[in-house]
Automatic annotation (TrEMBL):
Pfam families: FMN_red (PF03358)
NADPH-dependent FMN reductase-like domain residues: 5-151
Superkingdom assignment: Bacteria
Name of the protein in its database record: Multimeric flavodoxin WrbA
Organism classification: Bacteria, Bacillati, Bacillota, Bacilli, Bacillales
Length: 178
């Protein structure tokens, strides 16, 4: 039996060249998965040229199909997002739209493409809105066919306004291949 695979789509607005609080919390999730023998990978969506639209492939340099191949291989899909003005990031919205654009596809058994895949969410930020962002993402995933079990969201929210972020507040993770 193959190990379960988890994919975390980090919807930070920052590329991998910059430190990301969402990435740091996602890495903590990877540690937990590693302890459960689940293979986890984090993909920073800002590193890809993802076109707007509702088709599986928007052509002309659209790199979403590369990301979507990883989604199809995963048993668990988590969308990680920072909070901006109490909302999920624009990249998180883009990811959900692109996932929706493929929701009519089927797998090799003729089942809906997201059949038996579990969805979840990771949220970080310095303001309120974590539950709202999580609810929005989880509703979107459930609407297109992901299984949403109880307690599949985690978030870290500091004080509203300027203040320490997840990393600055002393939250750490042990570096691991994820």
């Amino acid at each position: 039996m193959r190990p379960l695979k988890a994919l975390i789509l980090n919807a930070s607005l920052k590329s991998s060249e910059e430190e990301s609080n969402t990435e740091a919390l996602a890495k903590k999730v990877c540690q937990i998965y590693d302890n459960e023998n689940i293979v986890a990978e984090v993909v920073r969506l800002a590193d890809y040229a993802i076109s707007y639209g509702m088709s599986p492939d928007m052509g002309d340099g659209d790199e979403w199909p590369q990301v979507f191949e990883k989604v199809k291989e995963a048993d668990i899909l988590i969308i990680g997002t920072p909070l901006w003005l109490g909302e999920k990031s624009s990249i998180a919205t883009l990811a959900i739209e692109r996932l929706y654009g493929s929701s009519g596809e089927t797998n090799d058994k003729g089942q809906a493409i997201y059949y038996n895949k579990v969805g979840g969410v990771v949220v970080t930020g310095n303001e309120d809105g974590a539950k709202h962002a999580a609810a929005s993402i989880l509703y979107g995933l459930s609407h297109i066919g992901f299984v949403i079990p109880p307690n599949v969201d985690t978030y870290w929210v500091g004080e509203a306004g300027p203040g320490p972020s997840y990393i600055a507040a002393g939250q750490t993770f042990h570096k691991k291949a994820c």
